[in-house]
Amino acid sequence: MEKLKDALLFSLSAGETSLAAMVDERSLSCIKTLFQIAGEPDFWGRGFVIEKFTAKQSQALLKACTPLFSSSSNFAIFQDSVSKGAEIKLLILARAPSENKFKSSYEQMRTTTLFNLFNEGALRGADAAARQALLDSFSLLPNQFLTAAGAIISDQSGSELMRTVPGIVDISDEGGSRVAAIDKFPSLLHVRAERLRADGNRIIPSAMIRDGVYIGKRNIFMFHAAVNIAAYVGDDNLVDSHASLGSSAQIGNKNKISSFVSLEGVLSPANAEPVTIGNENFIGSFARIGTGIRLGDRNFIASGVNISLGTKIRDCRENSRFKGEYVIPANLNSDFNALAIAPNNAEREFHGVMIRPGEYILFENTDEFMARFEGDSRIKSKS
């Protein structure tokens, strides 16, 4: 069991569905079972193992992994694929190969696996261990020339980089694409364009979604919208022009994220808690949501609001025990649902509370209030 702690990640795939988990204390017994089912493969030298299984072995695999994956949204789909005869493939990654001759192939397998699992949503930026593993892989990738579309420009030798994408361009080749950027990561459009289109997404020219991001279905990304590494975006969201979804931001469904909104990223440091946005929220233009804030469902954040976990907000909720006092978002995270935060620019009474210019005010969100902002039918407060 001690040696199993050298494992980093394991994943199971059946058809187009993947399940994955970073190895920790609670998953060690599962890993041991997987090794036994796989005939206890000796993979520590090269740092990874890929095994395929018979139908009988697949059932044993599912039984062993159910405690870890039963809460995953993909688990039922995975089980259905297996019941229809899909072959299960097991991948286990070690933290590093023990034999140096395998270093190059290990690094390529590690980076490709991690990025693919984030792109598929099997790993989430909400998982601190997964974030750290992705961050640790950044140093393995070289800076590369990219086209304006975010594709890596290939050289004539066709050499492979760690992400299993073509290598550096020969910029003297007049027939080649022009260099538009230098980065470690291609655009997600370069890596997952067909799936994004098949899922009904619209991504306007100049929007930038980096590799290592999950995008669900029927989302719209407007001009210069930016989505950074390890973010997760569900279904039916509108991300308006110049909005920025920082690294590891977790976005649910049917949200309107307006122009110039900034959701703060967390990859530096990787152990910070990411911004989490639930369902059917409205976030107004130029709003900023700081690290660690968790919005639930059906909240309204007014234009220009800039909040961190410690921002003081005047509580004007009718039935709050803190009514008239200051509260901070850190104290609201456990029940941040159907609330509104807005700036105040005059001394006045609001819901029986005297408020001053420059204060943010907190009050209950309602269908009537949200109706003023529901030009986009996907974010109506009633589904």
What layout of secondary structure does this protein have?
Layout (H helix, E strand, L loop, with lengths): L6 E8 L2 E6 L5 H10 L10 E5 L2 H15 L5 H9 L4 E7 L8 H18 L7 H11 L5 E3 L34 E3 L4 H11 L3 E2 L4 E2 L4 E2 L4 E2 L4 E2 L4 E2 L4 E2 L4 E2 L4 E2 L4 E2 L4 E2 L12 E2 L4 E2 L4 E2 L4 E2 L4 E2 L4 E2 L5 E3 L10 E2 L1 H4 L6 E5 L4 E3 L2 E3 L4 E5 L2 H4 L13
Parallel strand pairs: 7-10, 8-11, 9-12, 10-13, 11-14, 12-15, 13-16, 14-17, 15-18, 16-19, 17-20, 18-21, 19-22, 20-23, 22-26, 24-29
Antiparallel strand pairs: 1-2, 1-4, 3-4, 5-6, 24-25, 26-29, 27-28
Helix pairs in contact: 1-2, 4-5
Task: Give your account of this protein's structure.
This protein has 383 residues and is α/β, with parallel strands linked by helices. The protein folds into two domains: 3-123, Alpha-Beta Plaits, CATH 3.30.70; 188-379, UDP N-Acetylglucosamine Acyltransferase, domain 1 (3 Solenoid), CATH 2.160.10. 21% of the residues lie in helices and 23% in strands. The chain is built from eight helices and 29 strands. It has helices at residues 28-37, 55-69, 75-83, 103-120, 128-138, 188-198, 329-332, 367-370, and strands spanning 7-14, 17-22, 48-52, 88-94, 144-146, 181-183, 202-203, 208-209, 214-215, 220-221, 226-227, 232-233, 238-239, 244-245, 250-251, 256-257, 262-263, 276-277, 282-283, 288-289, 294-295, 300-301, 306-307, 313-315, 326-327, 339-343, 348-350, 353-355, 360-364. The strands form six sheets. It has a ten-stranded mixed beta sheet with strand order 7-10-13-16-19-22-26-29-24-25. It has a six-stranded parallel beta sheet with strand order 8-11-14-17-20-23, with no helix packed on it. Helix 1 (28-37) runs antiparallel to helix 2 (55-69) and helix 4 crosses helix 5. It starts with 6 loop residues before the first strand and ends in a 13-residue tail after the last helix.
